[in-house]
Structures are given as C-alpha cells and as structure tokens.
Queue: 4 jobs
Job 1
Amino acid sequence: MPRHQETLGRRGFLGLAGVAGLGGAGVLAGCSGSGQTGQLIRSDLDLPEPFTVPLPIAPVLQPVSTSGGVDRYRLEARAADVELLPGVRTPMLTYGGGFPGPTLETRRGRPVVVEHVNSLPVPMVVHLHGGVVPAESDGFPTDLVLPVAGAARARPTSHAHAASHDDPQAVVTTGRREYAYPGDQPAALLWYHDHRMDFTGPMVYRGLAGMHVVRDDVEDALPLPRGDRELLLMLSDKAFDADGELVYPSLDPTLTTTPGVEDFAMEGVLGDVVLVNGAPWPVAEVDAARHRLRFLNGSNARRYRLRLDPAPPSGPGFVQIGSDAGLLEAPLEVDQLTLAPAERVDVLLDLGAYPVGSEVTVVNDLGSGSTSRVMRFRVVRAASDDTRVPERLAEVEQLDPTEATILRTFRFTRGDVGGHSGWTINGAPFDPVRMDARIRSGEVERWRFVSDAHHPVHVHLAHFQVVGRGSGGLTPADAGWKDTVDVRPGEVVEVLLRFPDLPGRYVMHCHNLEHEDMKMMSAFEVL
Ligand code: C2O
Ligand code: CU
Ligand code: CU
C-alpha cells in the first residue's frame, strides 16, 4: 500500500493536504475492473449519516448588464472556506465563494460575455464545456488568466515560466479575461470549469466547477416540469482529512510547478464521499409529481450507474429526454443511467408513481459502501401535475455516415511522458504547440477512439453522434448529440462530427482529469 512518506507533513499554501500526513486517511485497493478506473482515497473524519443533509441548489448568477443585446456576467474565482460537510469548513478554490459555482442561465441566440476575475493564488483558465465557442474564448489550456496583482504575493513563483509552457501563441492575461459565448446552440446543460494546463484535476477537485444551462423555445414549448421540479444535479466525489481539508495527491500541492499526482493515483482520484451540488448524500423533499432531473457527472474520475431503489411501482424508472448537448428526438425509457466524467443526462422521473411518504434512493451500482449511494427523494405531499412525457421532443439532425470522407483514429493508452509513466493519445503526450489535426469546418468526419482502459473522451467545439461501439453496441448514454463519450477498456467507439466555422486552436482529451493532466490531450486546428 503506497504511503508516500516523503510527502509527510508537506502542505501547500493553498491549504491542500497531501495524502500522507493524514493520520488515518488511506488508500484502498484499485478499482479497475469494477467499472472504475482509479484509486479510492478514504476520508479521515466522521461523515454525516446519508440522506440527512438537504439538497442545495446553486444560486443563479444575475447579469451585471443586459444592454446592447448582450448579457454580461462577472464572476470572481477565489479561495474560500465552504461547508460541504455539516459543521466542517473546507478550504476550496471557488467561483464566487461557493461550490458548485453559481449557475448561469442563458437563452439560445442571446450572446453572453462572462468576465472571469482571478483572485486565486494560481493561474487559471475557464472552459465552457459543451459550448460552441470561438477559439479565443474556449479556454485553450495555455491561455492563462494570471492572478490579479497581489493575489499571488504569498508565493514568489515565476508565473512567466508557468505562463508560457513554451507556447508562443498562448494569449495570457493578468487578473481578468472576458469570455464571449455566442449562445448559438440548442437548449442543454453545459458546465464551466477550470482548464489550466497540467493542473485541471486538482483545480476542479478543489471546487472550480459550475453549471450553465441554455434555454430555447423548443424546450419551452414542451410540457416538461419546471421551476423547483427541475433539478440541476452536479455529482462529484471527494475525500477529506481529519481537519476537513480535501485530500488530493498532487505531486506539487501548491499547484505551481510539477504537474500530476503520486504514482498510486495516476489512474484517477476517487473519493469516498459522494456530493450532489456540494452536499454529501443529500435528501430532497419533493411533491408527488413528475420531476426533471439533469445530472452532470462533475467528478474527476468516477463513473456512476444510477438506479432507483425502490423502482417505481408502475412505469419505467427514468425517461431519458436529453444527453450532453441537448434534447433527444424522442424519449427513451431506461432503468439505469451510466455517467462517465463530464457526461450529462436529462431525465424525467415520475415521483407521483410513489405513494406520499415514500423514500426513493438514487443508488450507484458502480460504487461500493459509501459510494454506492448518491441521494434520496422524500415524497412529502400530494400535488397537481399537468406535465406529460412528450412523444416527440426536438428535431434532431442525423449526420450522414456516407458523407464522412475523413477518418481519424485516436488511441488512448498509458505511455511514456518525458521518461515517466503517463497517458498518451496515439503514443504522444500533449503538446499545445503541435497540431495533431487540421480540420476543415463544415465537413462531416468520422473519428475512431480506441482505448486500453476507461477513457471518457471529450471533444471541444464540435458535438458528435456516436455511431459505433465495439462490444455490445450503442447504449442509451450514447443517444443524441454528445460532447463526451465513455470509451471502455479495449473498446473501439466511432463518432461522426462536423465542426462549425469557428477557426482556431482547440483540444480534445480524456476527461478523467488525472489522465488529462498527465498528458492525455491533443490539440487541433479548425481552418
Ligand atoms: Cu470539460 Cu476540455 O473539458
Ligand atoms: Cu469541453
Ligand atoms: Cu483516460
């Protein structure tokens, strides 16, 4: 069992605890083969009873201005103590002081500008995951936003070095940066998170993630649950030390120089506490009525398979109506939801099928012990319900495979990264300067993903349609427009995509964030 004594007592200025120096916190056996790729880290404090903490809902961010046809927002990233566990203060890196960050709610066709201010002690990069966004606002991993003057004073590290990554094209700003989002995409649940080169894993784990929901007229016209019967649910897993600090096995807990995690965790970091919207195994008191649940897997490495316990006495478990990038054409009845990191699923759940007084638990069949539970609904009152499950949801264009003239193959494997073990695509570690593909916008391409382990593959800018999956064919999680696809060990997955006319540099990568930081990423240029 790795104990990594050499890091004992080492603690960064961010208040980040390493794995060592934790007294009882420890590392359990690897989880490969059980539907997980990664290493479980155990918390070292008393955890709350499951289903006792109320489900929190992230606040909706208000624009600072709506003039000129553009909605402007401002969000400050800063270190803050957050109460994730009741009565425990956990130092985090946050958007706006809480976790998750505030939710942005925007409309299709209405451009949005978000000014992100960096009051963190370290550089950051903001990416809108699933957004159809021009290159200069996409958060290329070297387009750093350096801390505002003074924020980094505590640590006189040369940011110049960290800033360049030997990437002459990097656009580095100091203190703040405006990210412009055209908003020309269908209603969907997107999310924003840090995307800084080499340090995305610890930055997101420490709290730099929030949701961004896009609305449109198509969705508005459907008889779907809304208001407090529509729940945005961000799942994440974390581990805590005896003082309530998050445990993450960074090689450099200051997140300034050496990227990556200690060897034992290089397959991915798994915590033993499942959080929904930042609360451990929460409970939601709900009407006996249909609800719309929009799950986002915001975990670094954990996969989930969600199921209801008990199953509804009548009718299906879930009715899936959407996936990563928007609504499906027609609803799909499913009893379980498999979610790899960064995937989203949009489902209806008729809690009116249960008698008032019922307790309905969302369990995770890929977890064990504490991670086999996610949250609970307590059906507390009868209520009227005029929602329906529509027969048709949205017009969904099907990309035509015969139009695809270009085939690109990307092999996701463990490999050599500068003399150390890391993660590679087609044998090569990420290099922000090297363009691995030059892509003509407007053309349908076929991409083939081949993998050695579980790799949730994410492509920036272009949404895609999954058309092939090696073993056993497509799953409900492959339905509709996607931006992240779960590629399982030894599998070949094929997708069709077509890039919009937004020229510039983008990335595709594994969304297991430890893999990503250890170089499983590839840059491409859209022409
Ligand atoms: Cu969710 Cu490139 O990231
Ligand atoms: Cu993305
Ligand atoms: Cu991976």
Job 2
Amino acid sequence: MADGQAGETIRVQPRESGFGAEVTGVDLSRPLPAAALAAIRDAFARHAVLWFPDQPLSLDELEAFTLQMGPFGDDPFIKPMPGRPNVLELRRAPDEKAPNFGGGWHSDWSFQPAPPSATILRSEVTPPVGGDTLFVDAARAYDDLSPTMKAMLAPLRAIHSAGRPYGANGLFARETEKRTMEIISSPEADKTHPHPLVRTHPVTGRKALFVSPTYTVGVEGLTDMEADAVLGFLYKHLLQETYRLRHTWKPGMVLMWDNRCTMHFAEGGYDGHLRVMHRTTVAGEVPV
Ligand code: SIN
C-alpha cells in the first residue's frame, strides 16, 4: 500500500498465483504523486498485468498516464487516431465479420529491435458477452522448465517478424471481409529481427520465454523442422491453464501489461456487438 492522492491509499490485490493484480485507490486521470507512481511500478514488476477498474480516462488522460510510465512506443502498421499518433482505436462494429484484432497469441511488436515494455488498454464500449483478453505468465513458464531444457534454450535466438499478419501477403492483406480498423499491410513487415529466446527482465532480473505463434518465424541456426519442434513444445508449455489469466472487461477500465514477460490474446466471441478500446504503448529496451 502507498499514499495515492488526497489521502487515498493504493490497494494492490494480486491473484493467488501472483500473476496479475487489481489496483484501486488511485485516480489515473490526474498526475500521480511520486509514492503512487512508485507503488504502481512496484506492482507492475511483481505482477506483470495490472487492471484499474473505474478509470474512464479521456484520451488526453490516457496519453498523460502513459507518459508517466515512460515515453510512447512506436506503433506500426495500424492507422492511429486522427491527431493522436500514439493512440490506436481498437474498434469492431456489430456487423463486422473479419476476425477480431489481436486474436492470436503474441507479445506486442516483438519484431521491433526494442519492443514496447508495456501496453496500456482502456475500455470504452465493452460487449455484453465475450471480448476477454487472455494472458500467459512467460516467466513462471520458464521457471518450470527442466535445467536441461533451460540449458538448451539459453544460447538460442528466435527470429521475429510482423510478416504473417501485416506483410505484403499477410493475413490482413488477404482478408476480404470489411474491417473498421485501418491496417497498413506493407513489405516492411516482412523484415525479420532476432531476439534472445529467453530474455531477462531489466527490472526484476527474472528470465522469461520470449516467443509467440504470431511473430516468431524461426530460430537462428535451426532448420524449419527443428524450430517448429522447439517452438511447438514451448507454445504447448506456455498455453497450459496454470499460466493463464483471463481478464473480463467492464467499460472505463485500464489494463496495463508487461510485454517482456507475458503473451496475450484477444478472445473475441462478441459478434453482433460493438467493442471499442484505446491503446497506447510504452517504449522498451533491446531484449537481452
Ligand atoms: C491487443 O492489443 O492485442 C488487443 C487486446 C484486446 O483487444 O483485448
């Protein structure tokens, strides 16, 4: 606990596993006092996914909160909101048939040389059914591997690319159904970038698996069959129920997750209903 604003006290209520926590007793619409910011940073390092109920931030407030966590990240391949280059609107109309955005396991923009440390998502309109966001704890999943598997993975570098979703021939380029969000498919997306397959968190020092079915396209030095076998095992391991967290939204919630030690998945399941979210990212560091 720490003093919030005007005598409020921040409460951090972690889930039993320690992965994910609810944070109350703070008003994110106002500049955060140093103690409140430190408490949020500490909770973020401990729990990796934080949700803040009843925080119906305006877009200006969402941007201001993000900047207290760090400078904006760079969001490619999606047209940002008019006049707000650092805010993406994740909007899906009730009559939309195209698959929902974010519906594959990933860590945001992991194909960048320095992927975003955090993503912040604020709900505006939530559907009455579906629309949950799922997470996996890639640090605990790493911890549970055998010493032999850890030793085998230690020197490996995974190859990341945005090509599958955003490439010139990617999923978005080929889709025929109408989509509200404007996706900018590009040959730029087909570039690849290697990162350590196991990365060390710069704040906690914990190791985590840093691969995802959406953006990891291979492993340096392994044949495609070998990489498929290693990655296939890792995805099966990561996606076990024990590492999962399911976030169910209400309007006016803020959710912040750590891309350095988690993967996430937007579940969908709300055809016929409107869902509107606003998203920013916080710049990150080169993974080591
Ligand atoms: C995403 O950022 O991947 C989308 C998450 C969501 O819409 O729940």
Job 3
Amino acid sequence: MESVKLVDGNIKTMIALNNKNLYKTDCYINGEWHAAKNGHAIVINNPFSKEVIGTVPDMEAADCVEAIDAAHSAFQEWKKYTAADRAQILRKWYELQIENLEDLAKILTIEQGKPLAEAKGEIRYGASFVEWFAEEAKRIYGDVIPGHGRDKRITVIKQPIGVVGAITPWNFPNAMITRKVSPALAAGCTVVIKPSELTPLSALALAELADQAGFPKGVLNIITTSDASAIGKELTGNPKVKKISFTGSTKVGKILLKQSADSVKKVSLELGGNAPFIVFDDADIDAAVKGAIASKFRNAGQTCVCSNRIFAQEAIYDEFVEKLVKAVAALKLGDGLETGVNIGPLIGAKALAFVENVVEDARSNGAVILTGGKVSLVNDLIYEPTVITNPNTGMKVFREEIFGPVAPIFKFETEEEVIEMANDTPYGLASYFYGRDYARIWRVAEALEYGMVGINTGMISTTVAPFGGIKQSGFGREGSKYGIDDFVNIKYMCWGGVD
Ligand code: ADP
C-alpha cells in the first residue's frame, strides 16, 4: 500500500459506473466529504490488473477525533428518534443499495478481486441486514418483571449504547459494514467506521447512499487510513466511544480487546476460524462435494467461515477425493469481472506468500498435492485451487487459517476421533458436516465446539441467524433477533411505594 501527498487533488481515475456519485475519494464525516487534514492519501489498486483505481484520504487520529465528536453530538438527537423514523431511513438506505446493486458489486470486484457474481451476492447479503434491522428497530422490547415486594414493580428498558467504533476487513468490504452498522443505527447508536485500507471504496459508496437515504449528519461517519493502529487506539481510548465492533484477525482482535479494557468498553469480536468440514460414510457424497466447493473456494478461500480442514471417513475417502478433484478442475480462474470466473486473485502478495508457505510445509512433510499447489499462469496473485491428501495434524494446513483455495483432506475412522481432531484448535467459528444418521447428527452438532454448525450444507450465512464464534474466534452475535443486543444497555427501574 502506498501513501502519497496529494498535490493536484486526487489522482485522476474513475471506475465506469452507472451512478457516478458512488465513486468517492473523500471521507464522510459529520455529513460532509473531507480529505485528510494532513493532505495525504492512500493509493488503491485493483488486485487483478494492478491498475490504480483511486485514492482515499490517509487520515490520522485528529480526523478520527472529529468523526467521534460528530457521532457523539449526533447521538444526542438520533437516540430520541422514534423507532419508526429510524426504520424509515434504514429502509431507504436498503432500497438505494438494491437500486445500485450493479455498481456496488462492480466497485467491490475491482477493489477486492472476487468474481462479480459473488460480489452481487455480497451486496444482496449486505443489504439484507439493513432491511432486517430496519424492521427490528421497532422490536427493541423491554420487560415487566413481577416485583420482589408488595409495593415493588420492576420494568426493564433497552437503551442505545452510544457511539460505536466499527473496524472491518477487506474480504467482505460491504457486508461486514452493514452487518455491524445496521443494528447499531437501528438501536439508536451512531457510528464511526474504519474500513480496511485495501477496500475503502465500497465503504465510501455506502456512505454516499446513507447520505442520500437521509441520515442526519454525524450519525454515520467513515474514516480511511493507512495507520490502522493509530485509529484503533483513538477509537478504543476515546471515552466518547462506548462500543467497539470488530471483524478481522484474532491477533488484532486481542489488541483491541486489551486497549478497550482501560475505559471498559463493550466489545464484540468476529475473529479468525479454522473450520472443520466432516464427511461421514453415510453422507450424500455428491452433495458433500458441492458443499465443500462452496464453503472452501468462495472468495478464493478468503472467508473466516471457509472450511479449512476437510475430514472424510475411511470408507468414502477415495470416492470423495476423486469427485472433489474433478469439481476443482472445473473452476475457472481469472478477472472477477469476466463472466463465469470462479476464482479471482488473492488480496495481495503477502496473502499469496502465506498460502505458498502453508502448501510447501505440507509438501515437504509428506503430503501429496493432487492438483494445484502453485501460482497460476493466469495472474500472479491467483493461486491454483489445490487438493492435498495424506496431510497430518502437525502440518500448517491443520493448525493455521489458510485463507486461500487449498483443501487438505484428512482421513478418519471413528466419530470420536474426528470430533477430537475437529475441536483441536483455539478457534470456534464455523463448522460443517455431512451425514444421514439422525442420532449421530445430533451428537456431532452438540459436540462441535463452534458457534455455527452447517449440517448437510456448506452455506450457512444468513441475516436471520446469529453469526458469531466461541473460543478465540470471538464473542458477540451479528444478524438475527440477537444482533441488536450488542448495541443496547439494559436498564431496570425498580418502582417502590406502589401500595
Ligand atoms: P486481515 O488479516 O484479514 O487483514 P486484520 O485484523 O489485519 O485482518 O484487519 C482487519 C481490520 O483491522 C482492517 O480494517 C485493518 O486495517 C484493521 N487493523 C489492523 N491492525 C489494527 C490495529 N492495530 N488497530 C486497529 N485496527 C487494525
């Protein structure tokens, strides 16, 4: 990533869009578009073509303070809006996202690399959180609890927590924002968003649509920076921020959790995963192959819920491997904008080097690379979809979150053995298994130490379910009826003298 001093305004580039307003190269603070106070900007590249696609402000702590102040003063009014009024603006934001779906998807593919069809899916998925929480805004119910004395009555209310700092990653540049921000806004909170420095254009396009939707100034603010650590320190340290919501690596999540301790902020963390994908001998093998392709190779393997370790039972191991290799061979590699492409580039050279290292570790320790195992000739950031047999639990493919299109397939004999292997990781985000025996399905689903379990499916993410992890994959839930909980304080009133 390159940071430059802007001389003549922004570097002149443009993505061809139907709605040109969506191409933003300034940050959105207090309802206005701003350059960085220091005049610096980050250069954004298309990971496939390497072309410069724009610049965004390279902001510092002082800009962040301004955004926090704006959010703090906007909160004083926004929290008083009726739920119906907040819902109406959220609903408008949702409609604008659907109207601009093609453009939003295009921006996403160009800055992130994922195939356009997947990018469209992400925009739909992202917008669905806005729609859902527009509806949920009206259902933030309290309670009336039978009092503990003849003269006592207890009522419980939920109140918005205040200014929320949201830090989001590059692998879902749109949906990771809407998944946090919609429940926050629905609850009556205001937000300062720091998107990934690798994919800021999708975030700024969302801000433009928020502006059009009519959020009052200061309710939603976005700052972009190449110095994530400085902004992270400001968001976690500033007493006006009451809540941190983070999606990203476990390493950074731990830093933010520690930094939030001083002011005892409420925190929710959606961190790394190491998802097992188990195929039992009574499974529908064709369905399992389809599920494995969807959960392993989506976004070129760069999702925190991607299956990382595939386990196939002895009796069906060979059949499963053979069919998976065949399905992998059919995947088309290339520019995400090209029709029919399934696998685009990895996000950058560091990501590619990591995947190469993990595969090399497996190869040099005796694993067999059945297909792939190298950088593609199509593009220097595309890693060929790879299937590995004969791996073992000492290898990096078992221990590390691969974040690339690499499928190691472990052989197992018994249910107990595979549960032990599946749980042998500090992570606990997504897990998957295929089988038909209903008693075993219950046992395995209960035994897996994960926040989410896909049973006979490789696609589990949806607005209506509580997304989140346990162990070092974090805490807090996004989406569903539980999604608001992270953004409200519970208060009870104990009424005395009622006799
Ligand atoms: P990944 O490995 O997927 O890039 P990261 O955890 O590094 O995950 O990044 C996720 C988000 O966290 C990005 O927006 C990134 O800029 C931000 N980030 C990285 N380091 C820090 C930090 N020290 N403090 C706050 N945010 C950070």
Job 4
Amino acid sequence: MATRRSGIVVIGAGQAALTLAETLRRGGETRPITLIGTEVHPPYQRPPLSKAYLSGGMPRDRLWLKPPEWYAEHEIDLVLGVEVTAIDRRRSQVVLSDGGVRAYGQLVLATGSRPRPLPAAAGGDLAGVHVIRGIDDIDRLAAQLASARAVLLIGGGYIGLEAAAVARGLGKSVTLVEAAPRILARVACDRTAAMVRDLHLSHGVDLREGLGVARLVPGADGAAAGARLADGTEVAADLVIVGIGGIANDALARSAGLRCGDGSGGVCVDAFCRTEDPDILAAGDVALFDIDGSGSMRLESVQNACDQARAAAATLLGREEAYAPVPWFWSDQYDMKLQIAGLNRGADRTLLRPGRRPGTGSVWYFRASRFVAVDALSDPRAYMAGKRWLEERVSPRLDQLADPAVDLKEVASDPVDVPA
Ligand code: FAD
C-alpha cells in the first residue's frame, strides 16, 4: 500500500489534469505532482479547435491553459509526448511508452475521450478523412481546408455543426449528413434542433438528416473524393470531417481490472471521483458517474472536466466534497451562441420561449413538472435565469414562462424538494 507521502501521478495532461494540479497546489498539497500526457503540447483548451482556431481566427499560443513557466513555479512535473501503457496496481506504478516507470501514491485517470472512428470498411481510413480532437488534427485539417472546395461533414452533433459553420464561413460548399432522424438527436430536443437546422440552412449548408453514409468513395489519388449515402445518392467532396461522437479513453483502467461502462465506455467513479481502488481516481471525459440519481453518464464538457477535477483534488486533499454540479455547456455556430444549463435526459415536456430577435430564443425542459435544463440560443438572459433556477433548486412557473410578455425577471418559481 502506497503511503500518503508518495506523489500524485495524473495520466493525461488536458483540461481535467491541469485543473486538478492547480487545485491541489492551491489547497496546500506538497507532494510531488506529475502529469503524463501523450500529446507533445502542454495542457490546452479544446473548444476553440472546432471554432476560432479552425477558422484561423485564434493563434495557437492562446490555446495554452497556462504559460510555460507556470509548471516549474508550481512544481508540477509535466511529462509530454509519453503514453502510459499500463497501470501496475500491485506495485503502485505506471509503465511508460519510453520504457520508464513512475511510482504513485495516488493515481488520477484524466485520459479524456477520443472521436469515434468511421470504420475502415466504410472508408474511414482513406486519406483526406479528418477528425477533430487535438491541435495536430486541426493543423492537418486546416492546411487541407484552405484549398478544399467541397467539404463533407459526417455527424450532426456539436462538433460537426461547428465545423460546418467554420467551413461555410471560409466560403466552402458544405454538405452535412446525419444518420439519425435529425441533428443533435443525442443532446437536444427537436425544438432546439429545428432552430439550429434553420440556421445552417440559411447559411447554405446542404443538410441531409436521417441518411447515413454507406461508404466513402476514393478518387484517382486514393484519397476520399466523396461518399455514397444510404439511399444510393453520391456526394462529392475533397475533404471529409467525421464527428460521430466520443469514446472514453478507459483501456488502461479496463486492463487494470477497474470497473468500466459499456457503450461509449468510461471509468466508474463515485461522487468523490474514486474508483473501486482507493488509490485511483478519475475525472473529466473519461469518468462515468451518477449525477442526478437516474443512472451513470459521462459528460464531455469543460465545466465537467474542471469541476470534477476540483472534486477529485478535494478527495486527494482529504476534504471530501461530493461532485454535484449544475452542468453547463456552450457551442458557437456563425453568430449564434448556444448556451445550455442542466441535464435534459428523461425530460417529458419542453417549452419554447421566443427571443427578442428572429432565430433567438430558449427551450425549457421539464421532467415530471420539474425544470431540469434550458437551451438558450443567442439568449443569454434565458441561460442566466435558467442556470440560477437550477442552482437554487427551484422550478419556474410554466404559465408565466410560456408567456413572452412576462419578463424572465418576473417569472415566479416554486421550490423543488423532491429528489430528481
Ligand atoms: P482531454 O482534454 O482530452 O485530456 C486528456 C489527455 O489525456 C489527452 O491529451 C490525451 O492524449 C491524454 N491521454 C489519453 N490516454 C493517455 C495515456 N494512456 N497516457 C498519457 N496520456 C493520455 N466543451 C465545452 O464545454 N464547450 C465547448 O464548446 C466544447 N467544444 C469542444 C470542441 C472540441 C473540438 C472538442 C474536442 C471538445 C470540446 N469540448 C467542449 C469538450 C471539452 O474540451 C472536453 O470535455 C475537455 O477537454 C475534457 O477534458 P479532459 O481533461 O477530460 O480530456
């Protein structure tokens, strides 16, 4: 059994890892802290990758979460370009791709997630097929995007839709194909999807919903030159971007015998970010946890990576603070800012509240008459009101909320005292 005096080793050097290290040092942690990351880049923010960084509107040095000198100043050992290949729980050490090992007193899995690949059988391994996850992905993609004329997006989730908006902004012809009956099927209701659909149609995106890709078609040079769709039609493209969801990087945990989830995976943790091994915690995209009493889930968001890492740090500092957040998320597409607060799963009713300008507004989700989430489309007042109600554990009065003549500040709310 490792002693409390041994160091803390974090696998991954992304948003969750950085927040964890920072919170530990702020909390007075004096033990050695090591972050080990596969990527050669220091911890950076991913959201701009499918937005301003992809469009060329943000320089690379604005992606870094901390200046280079911060790590030495805070005695954080940053080991980059090295993969952890195994966790040896018996010896309390991790095995590295460079042949080394690192002993740990406590270990944190902050390995994030990766894009679900388009199978090779469907042409996913052709040249000219891109995913959006890391800086290197974007640098490769942006170079080809500059000269591309027609872009095919596979997947109508946030990343695909954001990339479509960037590509249209660069003047490319854009087709977006979504196999599910509609875009945003996994994350938003049909009212929100309808507003986002209208936005993309108004910007000239050729949006095809309920239509999967049968396979990508190679051109004379062997690179992807388009796709044959499920209905037999073909779409020509000189660049393909695949955004069909994420999978947790939980292979290390699985091999080490830790309990993990099915589907898109994830390492099972309790409200204090502990796995079943008392010396191993997990936080961020990779963690699978029960947030609202309705079953385990993973959240892929900056809010989750940061807040869960803070909860994990509290556990390591010996001050247990259960992770019970009001989740929030955002997406930028064209000049529309979508802001989401709460979790809409299990919602049985939605309400659309039009905004002050066309194309703006908010969609409110209720479960058993209880307010659980809001999607605000270029409507920051709705987002702020909804987030506040969720934090205060109250539900706005439906009749007042439904009436656009009633100002949000005037909408009354009732306490919610039943568990979600
Ligand atoms: P990551 O930041 O992915 O860090 C994990 C790191 O661990 C990676 O660098 C990985 O290489 C490394 N790693 C994995 N396995 C190993 C190993 N065995 N050994 C060593 N290192 C390993 N969220 C929002 O809230 N709003 C947004 O608008 C938004 N936009 C996004 C746009 C894009 C393009 C992407 C990709 C994500 C976006 N997100 C957004 C999600 C958000 O960025 C992630 O949820 C967040 O980065 C997760 O942090 P993390 O630390 O869990 O994982």
